[in-house]
């Protein structure tokens, strides 16, 4: 039987089945990337809700797995060489899962890196910029009288949507007909901007028909429907 007792995080979030991949998660855009990917891949896993609103990511147990105190993180009992692997950062986890299973990344080396560059596009651009937009448009930042921060992030988020719009011209997904971790990395953030931040009009989504059609295709996938709600927010 697999023994994960050496990992302190299992003391607070014990594994019902230590042979399964353990996902430490909250249904944010970054969190659902991993649950959606796992559902697409079909890899057995257990999802543990780590409530960011209750500061559970700053407990000693969680920090033992991710010293940066952010979800998601995973503990794979069957890592490289058959040894357990602890991993954080959603982009790194997506690449790891794709390479582990041979799914959600093109087999051709050049196309593989082309897909990965779009994952980094999300990690370095869409994620940080959309996140700041949400703070200054919907959350505490909206109370700041100086609207220059909101204007800055609105302008940049709109520009990034334009980049995505151009990429999707004549394509079903980021990598043509291949659904990959690039789509999984990006679409939860676009969904959040529209649905959770309620920034549809602010960002002029009607001006990005390719993005809207692509978002609908991504969300209609059965794995997306499950992964967006595992586990529930609670």
TrEMBL record:
SUPFAM superfamilies: GST C-terminal domain-like, Thioredoxin-like
Gene3D superfamilies on file: 1.20.1050.10, Glutaredoxin
Superkingdom of the organism of origin: Bacteria
Residue ranges annotated for the GST N-terminal domain, each copy included: 18-105
Domain GST C-terminal: 108-234
Transmembrane helix in keyword set: no
Keyword terms: Transferase
GO molecular function, one term: transferase activity
Family membership: Belongs to the GST superfamily.
Entry-linked PANTHER family: DISULFIDE-BOND OXIDOREDUCTASE YFCG, GLUTATHIONE S-TRANSFERASE-RELATED
Full protein name: Glutathione S-transferase
Organism: Aquamicrobium aerolatum DSM 21857
Origin organism lineage: Bacteria, Pseudomonadati, Pseudomonadota, Alphaproteobacteria, Hyphomicrobiales
């Amino acid at each position: 039987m697999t023994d994960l007792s050496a990992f302190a995080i299992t003391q607070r979030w014990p594994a019902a089945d230590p042979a399964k991949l353990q996902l430490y998660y909250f249904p944010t855009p970054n969190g659902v990337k991993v649950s959606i990917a796992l559902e697409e891949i079909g890899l057995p896993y257990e999802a543990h809700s780590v409530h960011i609103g209750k500061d559970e990511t700053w407990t000693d147990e969680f920090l033992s797995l991710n010293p940066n105190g952010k979800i998601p993180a995973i503990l794979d009992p069957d890592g490289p060489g058959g040894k357990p692997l602890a991993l954080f950062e959603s982009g790194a986890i997506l690449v790891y899962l794709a390479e582990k299973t041979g799914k959600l990344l093109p087999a051709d080396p050049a196309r593989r890196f082309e897909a990965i560059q779009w994952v980094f596009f999300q990690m370095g651009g869409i994620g940080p910029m959309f996140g700041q937009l949400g703070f200054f448009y919907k959350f505490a930042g909206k109370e700041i009288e100086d609207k220059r921060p909101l204007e800055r992030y609105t302008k940049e988020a709109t520009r990034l949507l334009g980049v995505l719009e151009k990429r999707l011209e004549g394509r079903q997904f980021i990598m043509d007909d291949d659904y990959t971790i690039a789509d999984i990395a990006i679409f939860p953030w676009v969904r959040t901007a529209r649905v959770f931040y309620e920034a549809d009009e602010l960002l002029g989504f009607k001006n990005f028909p390719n993005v809207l059609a692509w978002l609908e295709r991504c969300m209609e996938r059965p794995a997306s429907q499950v992964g967006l709600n595992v586990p529930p927010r609670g």
